[in-house]
């Protein structure tokens, strides 16, 4: 375990796309970390396979296990809280994790929220984030909210096996953001404790431009050399075309409303928060595709 008195930073979701990137950045900065994962086999490591320096690991199956979260956060001063999977009890899990942080004596939480989080957001999962934000505001903890847009990677997952992106997004635009940019912002925010400058602040993390799904499809088609296009659906068609997945109603509603939120203009806002906080422009969707060809290589088939 890190030495008593160290400023320990806990990173939840440390084996995920965002958490792994953040853990590696914090290690490079010499931070003392508590990596909270669900699977010990997936703990992030350095490129040579060695464990991260000044890091220990806590395994917690779910944020909903308050006792386990409380133990995992013992001795932690700052918590990076990655939002849980989109399950019906997601908000309850978040609230349990926040309460465990309070009980463990955590002082500060940096939470990954969503752009436009509000009680009446079109995107239903953004309502979950708003409920979590409200609980954090009432908790007595110092807090910072990172309201991310959809990730660039998510746009590649919208493509069906037939090369079609289907959804009721119309001609709306989305200013998607890269995991790397969010990890860079999180690193800057977590490690800057000199003036409490990030306390009670909400940052909107977006890419540098907002694009339509038709433009995203055209960019992917050019890169892969195959036909990829966007086809608009009605809301009714969107629910019907996703019925075969067998997911619960709340999850499907989240999928569908990610498109209707784009149509409503809720995801088109472009913020300069990434550039201000890390000192360089945010990566565009096209930049990200150039940087990570392995992430869309499956679309070539």
Describe the structure.
- This protein is of the alpha/beta class.
- The protein has a domain at 8-149 and 178-205 and 271-283: NAD(P)-binding Rossmann-like Domain (Rossmann fold, 3-Layer(aba) Sandwich).
- The protein contains eleven helices and eleven strands.
- It has helices spanning 17-28, 66-72, 90-104, 124-138, 152-157, 179-191, 213-224, 235-241, 249-263, 273-278, 285-291; strands at 8-12, 32-37, 55-59, 78-81, 108-114, 142-148, 164-167, 173-174, 201-205, 211-212, 229-232.
- The chain has a seven-stranded parallel β-sheet, sandwiched between helices.
- β1 (8-12), α1 (17-28) and β2 (32-37) form a beta-alpha-beta unit.
- α1 (17-28) packs across α6, α2 packs across α3 (90-104) and α3 packs parallel to α4 (124-138).
- The chain starts with 7 loop residues before the first strand and ends in a 10-residue tail after the last helix.
- It comes from Xylanimonas cellulosilytica (strain DSM 15894 / JCM 12276 / CECT 5975 / KCTC 9989 / LMG 20990 / NBRC 107835 / XIL07).
- InterPro entries: NAD(P)-bd_dom_sf, NmrA-like, NmrA-type_oxidoreductase.
- This is NmrA family protein.
